[in-house]
TrEMBL record:
Organism: Rotaria socialis
This protein's record includes keyword Nucleotide-binding: yes
Ribosomal protein keyword on record: no
GO molecular function: ATP binding; protein serine/threonine kinase activity; protein serine/threonine/tyrosine kinase activity
GO cellular component: kinetochore; nucleus
GO biological process terms on file: chromosome segregation; meiotic spindle assembly checkpoint signaling; mitotic spindle assembly checkpoint signaling; protein localization to kinetochore
Protein's UniProt name: Protein kinase domain-containing protein
Domain Protein kinase: residue ranges: 1-266
Keywords associated with the record: ATP-binding, Kinase, Nucleotide-binding, Serine/threonine-protein kinase, Transferase
């Protein structure tokens, strides 16, 4: 039996051995939560995604993927019940980490003394791990499509992806208020949505956010990598180069992952 500590989007619990874990509870009885699961095919597709995440994390000790310890479905009638995913517990999400780093940096540098949103050293450390996360996804032919700071958690000093696109079937009351880091082709539902280049945009958008504190604006005529209005360009030319390469509107214009892995900003010690 688990001891519930507090409730949020995911529960924090203590397992029988006294270890803290995260438990995601998906209520299939709640019609509002699964308003888009309108037929058996969609339900089966959703369950396949959950099982794929479980098998990937349970059988592979991937450093940058949240570990799933147990998966269960409590079904009292066909296609009904609750899904329980018991996972490794992270200390904080990446969006909270970035905000904490920003607040600390403001106290040290002063509001008007630096154009950097977070310390450059931490920005590069986070970027390197974002590249590693996408490397894991591509190794297993996974296009996440919804990589964003809210879907990445810190476990000690390691960043781990904790949501494999399951949110496309989940109802989120705060969706419009949550910064979206998805690629243009995913948001406008045009073209091949499941290609890995969508994740290249997402990590570029997170680099932009760590640099300027805002999301990039995009449209076919817009240079999304340019700084927000009234903000000076980041001083580091390697960061500017990465932003220009990753935040291309068309997927075919974005670099392959190998280019990012060997980019001087990523590769330097």
């Amino acid at each position: 039996m688990f001891q519930w500590l507090y409730k949020s989007a995911v529960y924090e619990a203590i397992d029988p051995d006294g270890h803290r874990v995260a438990v995601k509870v998906i209520d299939l009885y709640d019609d509002s939560t699964f308003a888009t699961l309108s037929d058996d095919y969609q339900f089966e597709d959703y369950m396949n995604q959950i099982e794929s995440l479980y098998h990937l994390t349970a059988s592979k000790n991937e450093k940058h993927v949240i570990q799933v310890y147990e998966l269960g479905v409590d079904s009292q009638e066909e296609y009904a019940g609750c899904v329980y995913i018991i996972m490794e517990l992270g200390q904080e999400s990446l969006d909270r980490l970035i905000e904490d780093l920003h607040q600390q940096y403001v106290k040290i540098q002063g509001v008007n003394r630096s154009n950097e949103y977070i310390p450059p050293h931490y920005r590069r450390l986070i970027w390197k791990q974002l590249v590693q996360i996408v490397s894991v996804l591509q190794r297993y032919n996974i296009a996440h499509m919804d990589l964003k700071p809210q879907n990445i958690v810190r476990v000690d000093n390691i960043l781990k992806v904790c949501n494999f696109g399951l949110s496309k079937y989940e109802f989120d009351n705060e969706y419009d208020e949550t910064p979206n880091f998805s690629a243009p082709e995913v948001l406008i539902l045009q073209g091949p949505q499941y290609q890995p280049q969508a994740d290249i945009w997402s990590i570029g958008a997170m680099l932009y956010y760590m640099t300027y504190g805002k999301q990039p604006n995009w449209n076919p005529e817009n240079r999304a990598w340019e700084p927000p209005y009234g903000h000076a360009p980041v001083q580091d030319p390697l960061v500017r180069d990465l932003l220009r390469k990753t935040l291309q509107y068309y997927p075919e214009d974005r670099p392959a992952l190998e280019v990012l892995k060997h980019h001087p900003y990523t590769a330097r010690p």
